[in-house]
Amino acid sequence: MGYKKSDEKIVFEKIGELICLNKSKPLKNAQISTRKAIQIAETIIHLPIYIATVTINLSNQSFIETVTNYHRISNEIRIYERKIKGRPIAQIIHSKVLSNCLFEVITLCLETSSKKNEFNVFIDNWSIPTKDISIYLKYRTKSLSRNIRRLFPNVDIKPIELLEHDTKRKRFIDSVTSVVSRNYHDVSSDRYSTEPFDLLFSSESINAINVDITEKEIDLMNKMLNEFFKKANKSINPTRRRRLVL
């Protein structure tokens, strides 16, 4: 999700009461009923913000096989070369979803307004292992900047920061995420509802985009694995493999 910093006050004023921005405690996901989620979505579509969602088909057999291999190799590197514990597949998938979300929402902002040339990026850190935070933020900022500048050379991406504390900004992002994610709950869940999502991502919307990245990530992970095996085969001492960021 993205918006101009100068619009933040207006955005918070218009949606603040609905999502308890000024209350002592944040609005929990369990407290957002379907009716309230629809109200939030109806308010959001009139606000000057941009929303991007990316999806991965977890039932895709090719994706399952690829991410399983990627998980195994990347954890071998983490454990035997970096001397840190492995990470679960969920963290790998979340990292890829996050990277694509950042790219899509920034390009969406740039495509609808040529005046934006500087971006301050804030992310949640639940999927980043503690020992990886520093290297992850540096790598992700560098990677994001490189990919954006291929399309928009004059754009400046500031170092990515974490949303670690309870602030109005964090509450706002959490609430919007909760509303959008209802579309992906199991149909038997009380929180499942397609209406809020459909309101935000209607065919008329120019401020919201939804992208499936399943095939893209299969190709990317396979390329990284092939690169790793190529370097490993060239190494005289297999135990001294060149480190990859996986």
- The strand count comes to 7
Count every helix, treating DSSP H or I runs of 4 or more residues as helices.
8
Helix content: 40-55%
Largest sheet: 3 strands, mixed
Element string (H = helix, E = strand): EHHEHHEEHEEHHEH
Structural class, by secondary structure, is mainly alpha
* Poorly predicted runs: none
Global Rg: 20 Å
Placed side by side, the strands forming the largest sheet appear as 1-2-7
Q: Specify the overall morphology.
A: globular
Estimate nothing, just give the exact number of structural domains.
Answer: 1
Give the terminus-to-terminus CA distance.
26 Å
Overall pLDDT: 88
Structural account:
By secondary structure, the chain is mainly alpha-helical. The protein has one domain (2-225). The chain has 8 helices and 7 strands. The chain has a 3-stranded mixed beta sheet with strand order 1-2-7. A two-stranded parallel ribbon has the order 3-5. The chain has a two-stranded parallel sheet with strand order 4-6. The two termini are 26 Å apart. The model has no long low-confidence stretch (mean pLDDT 88).
Summarize the structure.
With 246 residues, the protein is mainly α. The chain contains eight helices and seven strands, in the order E-H-H-E-H-H-E-E-H-E-E-H-H-E-H.
